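Recap from last week: sequence in, structure out.
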Amino acid sequence: MKPMIRKILAMVMAFFMLVSTVSWTIEKHYCFGSLVDIAFFHEADTCGMDLGLVNAIFDKEGNPCCDHEVITIPGQDDLKISYHDIDFGHQFFLVAYAAYYISQFQPKAQPLVPHSHYPPPILVKDITILDQVFLI
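Predicted structure tokens:
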């Protein structure tokens, strides 16, 4: 379950990174005040009228026939964050966190047991049973 959640989270983060770095362009074309076409990432289709001649006629009266609206949302270009741009407190935290995280993968030292190489004595008779001495 945990690897699946991690994969889904990675995909969502990659999607957000893609969306934030792409520049978005939305173009709208209006003809006589009504919306004719909306286009993302390319030019919007016109209504088919010759804009130069028709707009020249309507400009005399002050009412242009067609209108073209362009909305541009620039993407994020600077994605590199320098270590020196971070203040000292955050640098200290990042170094401490990284050192702790790396230390989790180091093998732990086993405690020294001085008598681990010596076998226990061979029991000929169980003395506690013979003497009837039991811990209560």
